[in-house]
Amino acid sequence: MISGFSPLMGLSGRWRDMAHIWSAAFLFLTFIIRETLPQRIIGGQEVVPYSIKYQASLQQDRNHYCGGILIHPQWVLSAAHCWRPSNIIQVVLSEHNLAVEDGFEQVFNVSKIIVNPAFNSKTYSSDIMMIKLSRPAMLNAYVQPASLPDSDTSPLDSRTTCTVSGWGVTRIYTFYLSPVLRAVDVDFIYNCNVYLASRVNEFMMCAGSRFGGKDSCQGDSGGPLVCNGNLEGIVSWGIGCANPYYPGVYTRVRSFGKWINTVINADSQA
Ligand SMILES: *[C@@H]1O[C@H](CO)[C@@H](O)[C@H](O)[C@H]1NC(C)=O
After folding, report:
1. Which of 2, 82, 111, 263 is the most buried (most CB within 10 A)?
2. Does residue 192 have a pLDDT over 90?
């Protein structure tokens, strides 16, 4: 009944994967849990406008479809499954309410997109790509690159709380994006293959809430998961959203630090 268990459907992206059919029991349980955890992306809350300075919105025809993360004045990270041809998308920084143009937005065309060559669209392994903006962003009080973990950053442990942000749906069974940027705190989950039956490899990591109710969801793909001030994850996939048994799965940024630097250095020398 939970279609997410089939090899392909459960692995589709958080944006495309909208058509899960759940058992009535799961539906009931998830709603109960959500309703008993108020204020609580799914289970999150609106952020202070422009406080997540590295958050990007990927848009086509001015419609948000994925998140992204500014990591350098001219480079944005996102999930590879958010790829669309570079000439039809734009990147927006300093965005808060998608429905309102408040004058702080910085809108960019894209000069190139580099998808990680190991990306596997069936397993979502190496779900990471780099987007080069057509011009450098103007760094200011609202726009700053995220910091990435380096080899000296201590490993995450099971007590680590992370924050994920995005304009994704706020209710599990709707198609409506949040107009405003939202964030939610989720726990880093060390060995999530227990829950996800070996679909999680060393290029992925998991975060969620033991009780469900807090998660990233459709429309959050490509966005940041930040732990202890560092960008550790990119929203990638999940089985449904906010389900207590299935934590959200993120691209593990630590696995790609070298690749990211190589791409930026090679480009600046070209
Ligand atoms: C993006 O490219 C289009 C078409 O080339 C151009 O009309 C537009 O002004 C550009 N926008 C920005 C923000 O650079």
Report:
1. 82
2. no
pTM: 0.85
Choosing from 127, 187, 215, 220, the catalytic residue is 127
Please determine, for residue 32, whether its predicted confidence score (pLDDT) is greater than 70: no
- For residue 239, the tally of other CB atoms under 10 A from its CB is 23
The residue with tokens 């958050």 is 55
Residue type, 143: V
Q: Which position has the token pair 């406008």?
A: 49
Torsion region of 234: left, alpha or beta (phi above 0 gives left; psi -120 to 50 gives alpha): beta
Domains of the chain: 11-46+148-255 (2.40.10.10), 55-145+256-269 (2.40.10.10)
CA dist 256 → 23, 136, 253 (Å): 37, 22, 5
Residue nearest to atom 8 of ligand 1 (CA): 109
List the residue whose alpha carbon is closest to atom 10 of ligand 1.
109
Q: Over the Cα atoms of the chain, what is R_g?
A: 17
184 vs 182: CA distance, rounded Å: 7
Between residues 61 and 19, which one has the greater pLDDT? 61
Helices (DSSP H) in the chain: which residue ranges? Answer: 24-36, 193-196, 257-269
Distance 88 CA to ligand 1 centre (A): 10
CA–CA dist 171, 229 (Å, integer): 27
